[in-house]
Amino acid sequence: MSITESQVVPAGTWTADKVHSSVAFAVKYMAGTFQGSFSDFDAELRDGQLRGSAKVASIQVKDPNLEAHVQAPDFFDAERHPELSFTSKDIRGEGQELKIDGEITIKGHTEPVEISGVLSEPINDPFGGERLGLKLEATIDRTVFGVSWNNPLPSGEPALSNEVTLLADLQLSKQA
Amino acid sequence: MQILGISGSLRRESHNTKLLRAVGELLEQRGVEFTIYDSLKSVPAYDEDDDGQLAPAAAEHLRRAVREADGLFFATPEYNSSIPGQLKNAVDWVSRPYANGAIRNKTVAVVGASAGMFGAVWAQAELRKVLAAAGARVVEGEVALGHADTRFDEQGRLTDAEIVDQLDALADALIGELEPSRGQLAA
Q1: CB A54 within 8 A of CB A24
Q2: How far apart are alpha carbons B56 and B62 in whole angstroms?
Q3: Which of A34, A115, B60, B135 is deepest in the core (most CB within 10 A)?
């Protein structure tokens, strides 16, 4: 039985404290896992609905040439699709564990996605406000969104996995 | 709208240059300004030591031509199952500096001609790969003109109606890709 949204997440409007939050991705590449993050993003939990977005131009990886490549048309195509976004449709869960159904838009393609989440109880912060933590993880097939770049290994196997893990570790502050 | 044609073959009677002229006619029928780049041969070998403020004039000339074009049409022959070295060298010049290279986000289409039966299909695939890696927006679609030495009349006009139809479709695809991006830029 699913529990209604208002019972699962606290009421009101909560917005991401961007300094103390992160939005990142991880994908298998050759023998390991390649990770990157977005420095410019927004997230908001409002009246039981979660929305988020991230700017493609703000992708941070450890090499400037690679940073430029992931923004090119054969990756995220930042010129035409400058933003990734997410909107929740249904938030279910018990206690801290959440299952969030929603839609994610990457490179102009909108697809359903299921996100696993962990929600922490709101606390009073030292600045007179209230904040809560929300950790999110989802796995998507990047090729469904048209992000299809690859190169073969000597074995003929593709170097880059199609499966990408999206990770968000958010601190959300309650808005007055 | 301005489209720049680049032929990977340098010789005067190049089938690929003739193929580009056929493309040019189709583009001009659509009101597009089309020019074939005629100075590819003078572009020196890419050397990072020569790049920067004082890059060779021939390389800067190429970069400026690519930057000023809205889109590009490439025609490539096939040398040893791949693209000619001078064409690859040209793409290398226009891809640097990488985040801001002249070819970056440019919409490009690729066709090819060969005297053999396959119409440079391997070279076309390689060129698409190279252009995408260089940051271009590569239009889907291939036109492979095989037996190219028998497909043009004495005036250098393409005599194969099927190939003309395929070029027509690719020209439409290129323009179709360009128009929304122009709209977005204006918005």
Answers
A1: no
A2: 10
A3: B135
Domain that holds residue A54: 11-174
Span B38-72, pLDDT tens digits: 999 999 999 999 998 889 999 999 999 999 999 99
State yes or no: cis peptide before A64, omega within 30 of 0. no
> Shortest CB distance from A64 goes to which of B99, B133, B138?
B99
Residue A46's contacts (CB-CB under 8 Å, 6 or more residues apart) are A12, A13, A14
Domain assignment present for residue A161? The answer is yes
Q: Domains in chain A: how many in total?
A: 1
What is the spatial distance between Cα B112 and Cα A109, in angstroms, rounded to a whole number? 32
Domain segments of chain B as ranges: 2-186
What CATH class is the domain B2-186?
alpha beta
Instruction: Compute, in degrees rounded to 10, the torsion defined by CA atoms B133, B136, B142, B148.
Output: -90
Chain A residues 72-91 within an 8 A CB cutoff of chain B = 72-74, 77, 79-80
